[in-house]
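Something for you to look into today, if you have time. What I am after is a single protein written out in full by you. I want to see for myself how the chain folds. Could you add the entry underneath, on a fresh line?
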Amino acid sequence: MKKTLLLAALLLAGCGSGSKSLSSVAYYDLGAVQPAPNNRIVASLRSIDVFAVSWLDSSAMQYRLLYAANQRRQNFAESRWVAPPAELIGHALRKRMLSGEAGGACRLRVDLDEFAQVFDSASTSRVVLDARVQLVEPTGSEILARRSFSLSRPAASADAGSGAAALTGAVEAFSTELHDWLGGLDRAAASRLNIAQRCRS
């Protein structure tokens, strides 16, 4: 009888500690993303799709200690994204760059290669966002333009919360750079692309 009671007590204690551990996890997103103002909408686009390399296909918040173990990719134990980075970034870009109305017909494909916090020392860190982007014509048979983007932003302090804030800023900057790049494709040097005509629905 005593053994049974002891076992029950241990099981209850284990459940309690598990609940406490689960509740201590902090979940982050990219903040309240505002819809794109009219002057930031990319009229040539119908959709924006974001894909990620396999090791970024989870909600883990990842980091690397360059000063100690620069070949190890690690996860914060008590901090996570609310969704995988590709889903978060896709949602943010669509809200920032698409109007939700019919218009453009081209598709933007984003391949995410890096989205992590990097510690240069025990007290300093920065975030890195690397992506390859393709503008695809309506039938999907031709890539009209492509470009690689690499952004880095300092984190206010060496912790996961500051990393999440810095990555939010990196996504905002990425959105701005994407908008400016797409807007410049039909100017002087790239006028032969005729994006406005080829991306018309």
User: Anything to note?
Assistant: Confidence is low (pLDDT under 50) at residues 1-20.
